[in-house]
Every structure is written in structure tokens, then in C-alpha cells.
Amino acid sequence: xxxxxxxxxxxxxxxxxxxxxxxxxxxxxxxxxxxxxxxxxxxxxxxxxxxxxxxxxxxxxxxxxxxxxxxxxxxxxxxxxxxxxxxxxxxxxxxxxxxxxxxxxxxxxxxxxxxxxxxxxxxxxxxxxxxxxxxxxxxxxxxxxxxxxxxxxxxxxxxxxxxxxxxxxxxxxxxxxxxxxxxxxxxxxxxxxxxxxxxxxxxxxxxxxxxxxxxxxxxxxxxxxxxxxxxxxxxxxxxxxxxxxxxxxxxxxxxxxxxxxxxxxxxxxxxxxxxxxxxxxxxxxxxxxxxxxxxxxxxxxxxxxxxxxxxxxxxxxxxxxxxxx
Length: 325
Hints:
Layout: H1 4-27, E1 30-36, H2 45-56, E2 65-71, H3 79-88, E3 93-97, H4 99-108, E4 114-118, E5 138-142, H5 145-159, E6 165-171, H6 177-188, E7 192-198, H7 204-212, E8 217-221, H8 225-229, H9 231-240, E9 245-247, H10 250-254, E10 259-263, H11 265-280, E11 296-301, H12 302-307, H13 314-319, E12 322-324
Parallel strand pairs: 1-2, 1-3, 3-4, 4-5, 6-7, 6-8, 8-9, 9-10, 11-12
Antiparallel strand pairs: 10-11
């Protein structure tokens, strides 16, 4: 029989070894894959928010973490190949965003941890078992867009009194879950809608032309990483064809779009960094519940409204989180 002193000594040694092992796991050099839907030329605010958050959590590039970057350059056809490269690199975790990227990763690996940022329900798309217990190798931050779309349409009607028709700009090839939710919400609000599916940037102009001659119409740009990558083109087309447009993220409005309502995408990537931190310290992605954003913001560009000849109601301007003059 082991006496009390020997038992305590052995316990101390075991605990010390466990602590050292945990410390080694935390400080060991790690490798993170970051797949951007945009271009190599323009480092996105989301990427910087993610890396800054990791630094604050103790992961410093060049010291204990290295990044493998891949850029889709706004071309979804590149995703399978880029993800295959990352999987073959034997990374500790891969970070990505968007339905098409997640689906490609789902096909490429069931073992490499994947942290995603998504603008719709990942369980409804079959990416995870449930929000509370994802299971498998994926987890992350997801905004249930289906619940936001009604609010976006309400704000559009308030900003554009008399609005009767809304164009729903949607990328061909992506899930129709968001598009279907938008159509249901429009019907409930007694709005006519036009489904405007686009497969390439060259088709964007035809979509705006389709609305240009419709009375009391506006465009709702449904969320997609590939629309974000072509943000400047979409904003320019809306201005040129004199079509009021609403977007999900404030970056569109800061760049000249009319209005946006949605989650803080930078904050979503900050939260994604916390998942990467926990996974690199030993947590399993399938055990980490999906987080949903708690901050949503309404941003209006008053200068753009004046250019379009719109008088945004004062009551709406007062409620906006930011009004760009």
C-alpha cells in the first residue's frame, strides 16, 4: 500500500507533467490555414481582425504560429483546389468563410479542424449536427440570415416609402436557403420580388438593368463572399443605373452603397480566432458550440441617398448606428 506522503508526491509529479504537457501544447509552433475569398492584393479587414485577435490570445506570427494563405480571387471554381492544398499541408486548423468554401472543405477532409464564418444556419445546410454540439471537425460563427431578412426588408420599406418591388441578387451555384427565405419574407410583406441569379461578374450589369426601368424598385444584395470580393463593381452599377440597394455589411456603405443592416463581420472573425485558439490548445471542434453574433448595425450613406434623389425619413436616420454624410 502506498503511504500518504508517497501518494501526494506521485500526484504532484503527475499534475506537474500534465501542466507541462498543456504548456507544450500551447506554446508549440502551430500552423493555421487562412482561405480568403478575395484577392492577394487587398488584405481584408476581416483577416487583420482575425490575426490581431490571435496575437492578443498569445499567438504571434513568426514566434509560435505560422500562416498558410490562399486567395480565391473572387472565383469559386478555385476553392476545391485551394482547400486540397491546405489539407495536404497538414495544418492544425483551417479558417474559411462562405457556403461554397465550407462545402468544399467538407468534401476534402473529415479530420483537419475547420473554423468557419457563415451567414446562414450551418445545421440546416448539413455542415454540423447542431449548433449546440457540432460534432465532426467543423465549428465556428454563424449568423442566421433567415431571421435578418425580414428586418432588412422592413428597413428598405421605411427608407423607400412606396417600395413595391425588390430585386434579390443571388449568386448562382450557392445554396438557395437564403434566397428562399428572402422570397418568403417578401411575400409576407406584400412586396413583389424578382429573383436575379448571377453566375459571373459580367452578369451583374444585366441584373441592375432589369430593375432600372421598374417603378418603385430596389435591390437587396444577398450575402456572399463573392459579392464582397466584387463590392466596388456592385456599388458602381447601383449608382450608374440609379438603383437603391441594401447590403448586409457596412463596408459596402462606407464605399458608397446606400444602406446596410447586418452583423459586424469583423467581430465574427475575432470570435473565429477564439475558436482557433481553443483548438490549438487541445479542444475538439465538434465539442465547441456554434456562436451567433450579438451585434447588428444599421448604416446609411446620406450622400448616396441625395445622389439618388432619396429623402431618407428622419426617424430612420435617428435609429441608424452610423450615418455617413
